[in-house]
Structures are given as structure tokens and as C-alpha cells.
Specification:
Strand content: 15-25%
Structural class: alpha+beta
Mean pLDDT: 75
Helix content: 40-55%
Distance between the termini: 168 Å
Radius of gyration: 55 Å
Low-confidence stretches: 25-77, 82-92, 172-196
């Protein structure tokens, strides 16, 4: 009986325990259900807030991205001007080290005419520059500039000294030939000099009159042949080498070389033709068979220019006498050289016949 009572109590206790557990589960479930609607209502009441916050965050994120991109772009674009400045800086020294020009030019537009027959244009506006082309009297040229070295620049880029161009054509007056069936022959007879018994005439009296007093001062009977040649040579090298304009009338064409020499003795300056002609006739006047040579002389910068010098054969050897080139060389600082009485084996490589 006691055992049955114990079993019944045990069952009752178990039932009570189970009921208590169900009550607790029901309370928990009820609480869970009551809280769930509250959370649901909060979610329904604040959807805009959450959306606006999310949108704000998204916008801030969106705005910050281009800002970062712009910053990157600016950072990348900055090196460009730095590189440009570096390039400019490196080019400046080359500009400052540039050599001064050999001449300067001023614009000029004009049509001009060659006033001296046989002159040449040159590749540079400098005395002694390589020649380009030979011109005849009254050739028409187009001038585009004038230089500070007294040269006109032509349309083809070459240069002619200002002495050789004029704004008008040169008028040459000639004597009409006699009206005969055949032209009268031209005969050139040597003209008597002022002291024909003492010096050999050049064939042109005006030149003879100029040379006579000069030779009287330079030459004496006691001098050797070499001393006489040296005296005349040194006299001429005291003059100046400079471009000039010499208009030779048609009626005086047969006395061209005499007029060259006359120009030099009267004006104390001239070009190679004048120096060679003067040396020729002054040495011939005292008995030397001096020849005037026309050819070319090589230039230090390359090429060759038209030139004239003298030759004299002494004891079977041909010697060069070139006072004009000696003047040019001295002006360029070559003081220990000479063109007096030099053979072609010594300096012939400078001359082209």
C-alpha cells in the first residue's frame, strides 16, 4: 500500500512539473510574440529614417569617390608643367652660347643694275667669300636686303657689293664708227711718257705721269734687281685692299689694265686687279717682263674666288708676286708669311690658272 502511495505521489509530482514547464513555455512564447509585433511596428514606423540614412551614406560615398578621383587627376597632371619647365631650362644655355652673326641684314626691296662688267656675286656678304655667278654691265637684279658689311642681298640668296649696283643703267657713250665699207682697224700705239728716256712707257700717258715721280723716289741705280722689285712691292702693300667701282668707257677698253693701275695709284686702295696691274706696269717701266695673270685663289673656308696676280721669270724660274693677297693675309693676322717672289712649288697650291 505504501508503495502505491509513493508511486502516486511521484506521478503527481511529475504532472505538476510538466504543467509548470508548459506554463513557462507559454509565458516565454507569449513574451516573444508580444515583443515581435513591437519590433514589426518600429520597422514600419521608421522606414523613411532608415532609407534617408542609407541614402545619405550612399551619397556621401558617391561624392567622396569623384573627390578622390579628382585628387588623383590633379596629382597626375602636376608633373606635366614641371617637365615643361625642365625642358625650357635645358634649352636656354644653347641660346646664350650662340655665336654672333657674321653680318646683319636690313630688308630692302628694289630693282637695281650692275654698273661694272665682269663682277661676281658671292655666297656670303664678306670680302673673299666664294663666288657664285658672273654678271655683265647693266644686268638687272632684284635686291631683298642690305647688310652692315656693305653688300646687297639678291633674290637668289647671293650677295653683291654695294659699289657694283646702281638704281639706273650705266650709259656708255661711244664714238660712231666712220661710214666705210669695212671697219677701220684699231691700232694701239704706245704713248710717250713724261720721261721716256728713263722709263719704259705703259702705253697710257696718264699712268706714265703718275708712275714717274713714284719710281724716281723708290728706285736707284745702286739697287739690285731684287731690291728694286721689293721696293715697288712694299710701296703697294702700304695701300688698302677695298672693293671699288671703276667704270671703264667703251672707248678706253683697250687700256683696262692701265686704268686699273691708275685707279690704285690715285686712290691708294683697290682690289686684286688694281694691285697686279700697278705692279706689272711699275716693274715693266724699269725693265722687267712682268705678266698679269687671271685665275682663282683658294679660300681658307673652302672653295676658290676669282683673282689676279703677277708672274715674273728670273733665270728660268717663275716667281709669284701677289701684293693684294699679302694685304688680306696681314689684315687677318698672318704676319709671318709673304707672297713676294715665291715659286709655285712653295705656294702654288693656292693658285688656279
Amino acid at each position: 500500500m505504501k508503495a502505491k502511495l509513493t508511486a502516486a505521489l511521484t506521478v503527481a509530482a511529475a504532472v505538476a512539473f510538466l504543467c509548470s514547464c508548459e506554463a513557462n513555455d507559454s509565458s516565454t512564447y507569449s513574451t516573444s510574440e508580444s515583443k515581435a509585433p513591437v519590433r514589426s511596428e518600429e520597422t514600419k514606423e521608421n522606414p523613411v529614417i532608415e532609407s534617408s540614412v542609407t541614402e545619405k551614406i550612399y551619397k556621401e560615398s558617391t561624392v567622396s569617390k569623384p573627390t578622390t578621383s579628382d585628387a588623383t587627376t590633379r596629382t597626375e597632371s602636376k608633373p606635366a608643367p614641371i617637365q615643361t619647365e625642365t625642358t625650357v631650362a635645358t634649352t636656354l644655355p644653347s641660346t646664350t652660347k650662340a655665336h654672333a652673326p657674321e653680318w646683319t641684314e636690313s630688308k630692302l626691296s628694289a630693282t637695281m643694275y650692275v654698273n661694272t662688267a665682269g663682277i661676281y656675286s658671292r655666297s656670303k656678304a664678306l670680302l673673299g667669300a666664294p663666288v657664285i655667278r658672273q654678271y655683265s654691265l647693266n644686268d638687272k637684279v632684284s635686291v631683298t636686303a642690305v647688310t652692315n658689311t656693305d653688300y646687297y642681298k639678291l633674290a637668289d640668296g647671293s650677295f653683291i657689293h654695294t659699289d657694283y649696283l646702281s638704281t639706273e643703267k650705266t650709259v656708255i657713250k661711244t664714238t660712231a664708227p666712220p661710214k666705210t665699207s669695212a671697219p677701220a682697224p684699231v691700232s694701239v700705239k704706245p704713248q710717250a711718257s713724261a720721261s721716256s728716256s728713263k722709263y719704259i712707257s705703259s702705253g697710257y700717258s696718264q699712268l706714265d705721269e703718275l708712275m714717274t715721280p713714284i719710281l724716281d723716289d723708290l728706285i736707284s741705280d745702286k739697287m739690285s734687281d731684287t731690291e728694286k722689285l721689293r721696293a715697288i712691292y712694299d710701296y703697294l702693300t702700304n695701300f688698302s685692299y677695298f672693293e671699288r667701282t671703276l667704270l671703264i668707257p667703251q672707248s678706253q677698253k683697250n687700256y683696262t689694265e692701265q686704268l686699273y693701275a691708275k685707279w690704285l695709284l690715285e686712290n691708294k686702295y683697290g682690289v686684286c686687279y688694281d694691285f697686279s696691274a700697278a705692279f706689272k706696269y711699275m716693274t715693266r717701266a724699269i725693265g722687267f717682263d712682268t705678266q698679269m695673270i687671271y685665275g682663282w685663289h683658294t679660300n681658307s673656308g673652302g672653295g676658290a674666288g676669282e683673282h689676279s696676280w703677277c708672274e715674273l721669270i728670273i733665270n728660268g724660274t717663275t716667281y709669284i708676286f701677289d701684293p693684294a693677297i699679302e694685304l688680306v693675309m696681314k689684315s687677318e693676322g698672318y704676319l709671318n708669311t709673304t707672297r713676294f717672289m715665291q715659286t709655285y712649288s712653295q705656294i702654288g697650291h693656292f693658285y688656279i690658272k
